[in-house]
Amino acid sequence: MSGKIFDDPQSALAGALFEGMTIMSGGFGLSGNPESLIPEIRKAGVKDLTVISNNAGADGFGLWMLLESRQIRKMISSYVGENKLFEQQYLSGELELELNPQGTLAERIRAGGAGIPAFYTKTGVGTVVAEGKPVETFEGEDYVRETWLRADLAIVKAWKADPEGNLVFRKTARNFNPNMATAGKLTVVEVEEIVEAGTLDPDHIHTPGIFVDRIVLSTINEKRIEKLTTRAKEVV
Q1: How far is the C-alpha of 137 from the C-alpha of 120, rounded, in Å?
Q2: What's 78's DSSP letter?
Q3: Does the predicted TM-score (pTM) go above 0.85?
Q4: How far is CA 78 from CA 98, 191, 227, in A?
Q5: Mind telling me which NCBIfam families this protein's record contains (predicted)?
Q6: What is the pLDDT of residues 176-219, one digit of tens each?
Q7: Alpha-carbon torsion (174, 181, 40, 77), positive or negative
Q8: Quick check: 57 and 63 in contact, CB under 8 A?
Q9: All domains of the chain, ordered by start, with CATH?
């Protein structure tokens, strides 16, 4: 077996956590959250964290746990809804927030993984998003300059991995995870299943193992429904 495989989430994060670090955390809403690794970060007690994630979980789950323990100093996100604690901490001045258009956030992460320090986009031109950022004109249109995002640690949730760290994501749980796997100095992946080497179809691999440093089997796979909507029962 590969030396990338660890026995449990705690050992997979050993030596990776420190005060004031920047962490990328995969997920969109409650889909594709690294739900086994986040509780271990909480237990470690490291504070003054900058966390890059689409959102901060939902009430009682995901990154909400690190907000509740007051370990996060700054969020770099694109969505703050469905999380009352996130809202309260931001409005009270407890939590710093760098809000990004969602596509811009994804591209900043991708750029970080690709080694591209900056790029230009029309999204946000003429709004508060562009405040303090260079704006240039290309072919008669204004574009705002955005910079890459990188992290000390990327925590990622995948469906399957082989011992070399080649990853397959399942449907919408893919979301930000593949890009984040490329943009961390250290990438730790929790997976639902570890398969034997050579069993993954190369055409089905979403993230090559070269980007993955550590792999651990998930201990939590709740797959919660963030907002359940049902049709009213018809009265006959």
Answers
A1: 10
A2: S
A3: yes
A4: 8, 25, 19
A5: pcaI_scoA_fam (TIGR02429)
A6: 999 999 999 999 999 999 999 999 999 999 999 999 999 999 99
A7: negative
A8: yes
A9: 5-133+148-217 (3.40.1080.10)
Sign of the CA dihedral 126, 128, 131, 133? negative
Structure tokens at 172: 């919408």
User: Comparing C-alpha atoms, which of 229, 219, 236, 234 is closest to residue 35?
Assistant: 219
Q: What angle do CA 41, 117, 51 make, to 5 degrees?
A: 20
Tokens of 53: 């994630």
Per-residue pLDDT of 139-156, as tens digits, reads 999 999 999 999 999 999
Point out which residues pair with 105 in neighbouring strands: none
What would the DSSP string read from start to end of 188-215?
Answer: EEEEEEE--TT-S-GGG-SB-GGG--EE
* Other Cβ atoms closer than 10 A to 183: 24
**Both structure tokens of 131:** 């405040």
Joined tokens for residue 23: 């962490």
CA 35, CA 129: separation in Å to the nearest integer? 31
Structure tokens at 157: 């949730």
Q: Which amino acid is at 159?
A: W
**pLDDT range class, residue 233, cuts 50, 70, 90:** confident
